[in-house]
UniProtKB/TrEMBL annotation:
UniProt cross-references to InterPro entries, sorted A to Z: Fatty_acid_hydroxylase, Sterol_Desaturase_Related
One GO MF term attached to the UniProt entry: monooxygenase activity
Ranges for domain Fatty acid hydroxylase: 96-227
Swiss-Prot/TrEMBL GO biological process terms: lipid biosynthetic process
Listed GO CC annotations: membrane
Residues that span the membrane, as ranges: 12-31, 52-74, 89-109
Name the record gives this protein: Methylsterol monooxygenase 1-3
């Protein structure tokens, strides 16, 4: 029941979070079009249907086995299902820590996936779409799904949080992934609240250029290691044209 509950929450949460962006791509309301990063580039209905099928295959053949495997070790690594639910402040601190760990490790794993052999045989699957949309946020080669699950779980394994905290963390992480692949950056986006948050425009550039901006959550690693130079030049030129 535990594995089934986690699986259903993962699948349900993923597709629910995609719904607003799917509607924007289908209906194309004027207010949303103004914040479309790659203007006039929308997924077709066939692409949306196929992406739903691809994601269900991935959830069933890759994510579900990982959940079953993880279920055998969940208590051994300190994650508990018993006792009182942690206080909100404790959960907030732990989840913030998970985001920091995820960002740093994901940066390097993602950057390594752009090495020629790994890109050709694994990561190119995720780069199928130069203009990504919400439904393909987690679309990737099975090996990549497993590889990038490591940064997601290193933080929880180190801390041993309550299962409730772990599930909220995964929900936040899924939403963040969908957000940066959505193709839209609205004025009320997370980047407005947290300037260090990379945001959709930052990651959309990565898909468009197939390089640079390797971090998926914050801008710190790309700035520190100089992998956002092309993006900053691109944005500076874009602003000059608008002035």
């Amino acid at each position: 029941m535990f594995v089934l509950g986690c699986y259903l929450s993962q699948v349900g949460g993923y597709f629910l979070a995609c719904i607003p962006y799917v509607l924007f791509d289908i209906i194309r309301p004027a207010f949303a079009n103004d914040y479309k990063i790659q203007a006039k580039t929308y997924p077709s209905k066939q692409q949306m249907i196929q992406s739903c099928k691809d994601m269900m295959v991935s959830f069933s053949t890759v994510v579900l086995p990982m959940l079953i495997f993880g279920g055998f070790f969940i208590e051994r690594i300190g994650i508990t299902r018993d006792g009182p639910i942690p206080k909100p402040l404790v959960m907030l601190i732990q989840i913030a820590y998970f985001f920091l760990v995820e960002d740093f490790l994901n940066y390097w794993f993602h950057r390594w996936l752009h090495l020629p052999w790994l890109y050709k045989h694994i990561h190119s699957v995720h780069h199928k779409y130069d203009s990504p949309f919400g439904l393909v946020a987690a679309y990737a080669h099975p090996a990549e799904v497993v590889i990038l699950a490591i940064p997601t779980f290193v933080g929880p394994v180190a801390v041993g949080p309550h299962l409730y905290t772990l599930m909220i963390w995964q929900a936040f992480r899924n939403f963040e992934a969908i957000d940066i692949h959505s193709g839209y950056e609205f004025p009320y986006s997370l980047k407005t609240l947290f300037p260090a948050y990379a945001g959709t425009k930052h990651h959309d550039y990565h898909h468009y250029m197939h390089s640079g901006n390797f971090a998926s959550i914050f801008t710190w690693c790309d700035r520190l290691y100089g992998t956002d130079t092309g993006y900053r030049t691109y944005e500076a030129r874009r602003r000059e044209k608008e002035e």
